[in-house]
Amino acid sequence: MDFRHTMKGRRALSAVAITTGLLLTVAGCGGGGDNASDKGSSSSSTPAKSSSDGSTTQSKAPQSDPPLAEVKGENGLVLTVTSAKRDTGDFVTVEGTVTNNTGTIWVAAEWRGDESELARNGGSIAGASLIDQKGKKKYLILRDTSGRCLCTQFTGGVRAGASAQWFAQFPAPPAGVADVDFQVGGMPPASIQISEGE
User: Fold this and answer.
1) Which domain of life does the UniProt lineage start with (predicted)?
2) Which one is the CATH code of 69-196: 2.60.40.1240, 1.10.10.10, 3.40.50.2300, 3.40.980.10?
């Protein structure tokens, strides 16, 4: 009788020990823990790297390229040119942003150009041009067969405090020409450098 009770007791103790061991193993492998300890660390933190001298340096996330140019117009309008690339089709694509700090909605009326053909583009960047000061040439924006510019139209305008992206395409200056001025409306000229497209 004592022998049977002893065996039952040992089996129960073994079962408790195995169960406890399994629970500890699962908890250790789960990586769970309480969430409060994870709040201090960011999932996008950058890993530390060891340099050849044994010291560790923090690697930084890649940063966006600085703009090619930024000009400010009257009433707080800011034009930024972020890229100007020469493409294989013998044209240049210029891109950037416009930020409206005027305090009211901006409709780009003076940016659409003076030509009657460009009036059909509405509020757009159709009146932009590239100016080659050395070659004394001005390159007007490209248009399709119906007279629409190959550029951004600011449909509905740009709200106060908001920014909008834009693009404009021009005939490419000769291969040796990289330094040009981007001009639109009453904004000051923005000196930019054309890079070769891929």
Assistant:
1) Bacteria
2) 2.60.40.1240
H/E element holding 12?
Answer: helix 2-30
Q: Give the rounded percent of residues in the chain with a pLDDT score beyond 90.
A: 42
50 confidence band (pLDDT: 50, 70, 90):
very low
C-alpha to C-alpha distance for 146 and 49, rounded to whole angstroms: 57
CA-based radius of gyration for the chain = 32
Taking the model in full, what pTM does it have? 0.65
Apex CA 182: angle with CA 181 and CA 187, to 5°? 110
* Residue 66 pLDDT greater than 60, yes or no: yes
Tokens of 99: 């930020």
Domains in the chain: boundaries? 1-29, 69-196
Contact status, residue 155 vs residue 43, Cβ threshold 8 Å: no
Instruction: Report the distance separating Cα 11 and Cα 13, nearest Å.
Output: 5
